[in-house]
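User: Could you write out the 3D structure of this protein bound to FE2/S2 (inorganic) cluster? I've included everything you need below.
Assistant: Certainly. Input first, then the structure.
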Amino acid sequence: MEKLISRFFKIPNATSLPVYLAEGGYEAAKLALRNRKPEEIEGEVKRSHLRGLGGAGFSCGVKWSFVPRDTGKPIYLVVNADEGEPGTFKDKYILTYVPHLLIEGMIIASYAVGIHKAFIYIRGEYEMPYLKLKEAVGEAYQKGFLGENIFGTKFDLDIVIHRGAGAYICGEETGLLESLEGKKGFPRLKPPFPAVVGLFGCPTVINNVETLSYLPFIVQRGSEWFAKLGTERNGGMRLFSVSGHVKRPGIYELPMGILLRSIIYEHAGGISEDRKLKAVVPGGLSAAVLTADEIDVKMDFDSLKAVGSMGGSGGVIVMDETTSMVDALRVTMQFFAHESCGQCSPCREGTGWIDRILKRIVAGKGRADDVDHLLDIGKYLGGTTICALADGAQMTFLSYLKKFRKEFEDFIRNSSLRANAGWSSGGRPLGLPAPDGRSGTVSEAISGIASAGRLKAPSSQ
Amino acid sequence: MNQPAIFTPELKKRADQICANYPVKRAAALPVMRLVQETYGSISEDAELEIADYFQIPPMGVRELMTFYTLFYSKPKGKCHLQICRTLSCALRGAEELIRDMEEKLGIECGRTTEDGQFSLDHVECLGACEKAPAGQINQEYAGPLTKEKLFEIIKQYDVSKA
Ligand SMILES: Cc1cc2nc3c(=O)[nH]c(=O)nc-3n(C[C@H](O)[C@H](O)[C@H](O)COP(=O)(O)O)c2cc1C
Ligand code: FES
């Protein structure tokens, strides 16, 4: 199958401008700036059904069309390169292996919307991707592909790379804007949407790295071709990040309508050690978990939504039959509790409360009514907060409890089951004292398994 | 305020250059804080005050950033800063055991630095390196898939007594 973005990952040194140019690089941007009108490009992108690949899946062209062009204020482009959704690592590959593709996409987007200043917000931990990107931006300036009179036209564009400082919430677009303004990343109430009131109070387009990187292909080969690669209203392909218990974890660029089964078993080589599949998270940690019976789903935004999950960031996390879903959920909710920005009570208190209960359960102190109690807390977690972090946490949280309810109940009823559980079998959860109050060690944990569980069954049973 | 010690003329010049990228000076807060940290290894309380002064914002504004963002440190990290991801893809491939092994090996809990200042150990959330699970960072550099043996080897390079 033809690859688009990921074709460049295999070309040696595609990071460098000469190699990128030899591969036909910047031809699409030249074509756009010299031979197309901005509104033609916007229309083309709309018809291509390119969806936002950062997580929300909103139509890229439609989002651009919300930007008012006549306010007299500058319009900004902000590239979301924060890549924080657990299970997702695709933007890192674009930034590291073909940063010029992103820059070319940015030129096209900026021209289409009338933007002359762009910021790339890249997550603070990404050192190598940052260095590669910085080098590429420098090369592009030198060649006259950025700055004034790009490709000899009257179009100007400046790019500033802005490094984050470690906070998942800064991937949320309005948290990102706050952070980019030098504040803590508290998401903003919407409306107004960033398209109207965004960075520094000006109209702003925010797009993910991967979304922008598909633009050169659309400009060059047309919207119809791109749309047809995918499913209805889900144009093109996307980069799936596959991790967990598969033989070949990595990036797979596949059409939107690919079956989840095919990603796991054909592309990623199947389950490690030929074990059985137990569950899979299809769109980053915030997406509802799917059971092994649910993997004949098309991986486009609308199909995944129809089965109660989401396409999200395209992060596919695979769990084999040995996985303890109780532990998997504990690790998941620990993440959300840690990353909640603390602004809204349902999210701040809810994720923390759930985290504490799950840790108590795993420590062998579960109570008979815990599952119902958790379901009750989960009910109020989402839907009432400023941003969608809590909605994502809620979606995944409730899916584990509902689809694996029996496992949770069995676990609570018989904590010694833990000795037979998956990857964290026999251990104590991190950050908690060992059951007897001393701080545990590895050897203790191992002897705990041998003696069929130092974690006592709950007294309430 | 005393004579500024953190913002030397050289550092101030570089900070001013960063600020020039933005239409609003404060937007440069994160990059300038990174610059201070890269120069001094951490952002001390004195540095916080000078940063506040530089941006003309209340000291609490800087303290907020220090505590909100995980990559700003008020104390220097050890020469070898080990960060191990604990999120799902890595946990599925043994990250929790690995973190425990390292705590035991170094004799410190996550979040701490050894007394001799050689090692710091932290668990972190998803680094965007899940294909290399269990993944981590050794100082700035990404590493994975990590094993106990590989990490012990790295530790040996920094401190023979831990071998
Ligand atoms: C909690 C949270 C975290 C997010 N993290 C990211 C991220 O790391 N990268 C990203 O591109 N989008 C992320 N998003 C989605 C952005 O808010 C936004 O939808 C996206 O950047 C828009 O670009 P797109 O339309 O090209 O996808 C996140 C959303 C939420 C609610
Ligand atoms: S879960 Fe560890 S790097 Fe993503």
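Residues A 86; B 85, 87-90, 126-127, 129-130, 133, 135 surround FE2/S2 (inorganic) cluster (ligand 2) (CB under 6 Å).
User: Perfect, thank you.
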